[in-house]
Write a structure and sequence with these properties.
This protein is α+β, with helices and mostly antiparallel strands. It folds into two domains: about 1-110, NusG, N-terminal domain (Alpha-Beta Plaits, 2-Layer Sandwich), CATH 3.30.70.940; about 125-190, no CATH class. The protein is built from four helices and 15 strands. The strands form four sheets. Strands 1, 2, 3, 6, 7 and 10 form a six-stranded antiparallel sheet that branches. A five-stranded antiparallel sheet has the order 14-13-12-11-15, with no helix packed on it.
Length: about 190
């Protein structure tokens, strides 16, 4: 759900805001009361308790919501004062804007009602661990991050590696390799 203010500032940009655990909806409610334009993408999820089942609206991106503010005005400080908001997402230079197209794409997917799930953004060179299947617990380096991804398991002492086909949905990122981190910094600076 996007909440907007009557006046639209042409210099405003979308930013991701990191929230405390399970505080996304409370922070979004407070931002609404303050008149700050924001977007909290929600998905329906069926929850099972011992005595009942219920469909709940839960945040698509746990721990995050998006705000549209002008970085040159005091609106960032206003957002940071909201209970439940921890910080803006960015780097050492400050908050980094999110392209409008990325927010629009999320809205389009959710409006279409297609089945979707959140996956970690994996890059070639990331150190990963298999989380399900016959290889659960195996760690290695992601060689390709597409439908035909391969996990490279290295034995450094003999300078040999074993490559295994793996689905990106079956791995979690452990840490980013120095090469992938450098590539990421270069592309974000461009």
């Amino acid at each position: 759900m996007i909440h907007s203010v009557e006046t639209h500032d042409p210099d405003s940009r979308w930013y991701a805001v990191w929230t405390r655990s399970r505080q996304e909806k409370a922070a979004a409610g407070m931002l609404s009361r303050l008149g700050v334009r924001h977007y909290l993408p929600l998905k329906s999820e069926l929850r099972q308790w011992s005595d009942r089942r219920q469909t709940l609206e839960v945040p698509l991106f746990s721990g995050y919501l998006f705000v549209r503010v002008n970085p040159l005005m005091d609106s960032r400080l206003q957002v940071l004062k909201v209970p439940g908001v921890v910080s803006f997402v960015g780097n050492q230079s400050g908050p980094l804007p999110i392209p409008d197209k990325e927010i629009e794409d999320i809205q389009t997917v959710l409006a279409a009602g297609v089945n979707c799930s959140v996956q970690p953004s994996l890059k070639e060179g990331d150190r990963v661990r298999v989380v399900r299947g016959a290889l659960a617990g195996v760690e290695g380096t992601l060689v390709r991050a597409n439908l035909e991804s391969r996990l490279l398991i290295s034995i450094e002492m003999i300078r040999q590696s074993l490559a295994v086909s793996i689905s990106p949905e079956d791995v979690e990122c452990l840490r980013t390799s120095p090469i992938a981190a450098m590539h990421s910094r270069q592309t974000s600076a461009a």
